[in-house]
């Protein structure tokens, strides 16, 4: 099968790449641009192919072994919950994820206070997924959404007062 025939096949059905032997990078790129999840059929895709895959479908990140930080960022910028599939994300990736979708913090182990603050600034109710938030994080959460008070164990008087103002 010529490269042109392969290109025609994957441009029509991205998943057709699974039946091709040693597809060129151009064919791989065309396949993931049509169907991002086609990356699961590729062995050692280039970073350009990985980026195209996650830009087409944020869920493609789960099929990429050891994605670069650029690929991780592209995935979480599509939707923050994509961080669920990333092992040991950097703080920059964590921040991008929670800035896109605050509740993505549930997939982050031991988030820093900066990541916690970014999460509750994006969505005050994200506090439900934060263990032992600082008073600062609590205040930002209730200022963003007064209902956040229901997810805070033992809020201080200051936090309770602010929550009452924002309900």
Can you lay out the helices and strands and say which pair or pack?
Blueprint lengths: L2 H10 L12 H10 L12 H10 L12 H10 L12 H10 L12 H10 L12 H10 L12 H9 L2
Quick structural overview:
With 167 residues, the chain is an all-alpha fold.
Describe it for me?
The protein has eight helices and no strands. It is an all-alpha fold. It has a domain at 1-60. The radius of gyration is 21 Å and the shape is elongated. α1 (3-12) packs parallel to α2 and α7 (135-144) packs parallel to α8. Helix content is 47%, strand content 0%.
The overall strand count is: 0
* Count of individual helical segments: 8
What oligomeric assembly is this protein in?
single chain
Q: DSSP strand (E) fraction?
A: under 5%
Biggest β-sheet description: none
The shape is elongated
Helix content: 40-55%
SSE class: mainly alpha
Radius of gyration: 21 Å
Task: Write a concise keyword list for the protein shown above.
167 residues; mainly alpha; 8 helices; 47% helix
């Amino acid at each position: 099968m010529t490269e042109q025939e392969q290109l025609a096949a994957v441009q029509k059905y991205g998943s057709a790449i699974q039946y091709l032997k040693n597809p060129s990078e151009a064919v791989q790129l065309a396949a993931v641009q049509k169907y991002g999840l086609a990356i699961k059929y590729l062995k050692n895709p280039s970073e350009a192919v990985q980026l195209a895959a996650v830009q087409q479908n944020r869920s493609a990140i789960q099929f990429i072994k050891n994605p670069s930080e650029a690929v991780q960022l592209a995935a979480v910028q599509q939707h923050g919950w994509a961080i669920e599939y990333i092992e040991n994300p950097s703080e920059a990736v964590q921040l991008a994820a929670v800035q896109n979708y605050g509740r993505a913090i549930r997939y982050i182990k031991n988030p820093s206070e900066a990541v916690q603050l970014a999460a509750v600034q994006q969505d005050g109710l994200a506090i439900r997924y934060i263990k032992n938030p600082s008073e600062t994080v609590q205040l930002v959460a209730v200022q963003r959404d007064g209902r956040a008070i229901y997810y805070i164990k033992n809020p201080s008087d200051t936090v309770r007062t602010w929550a009452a103002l924002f309900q």
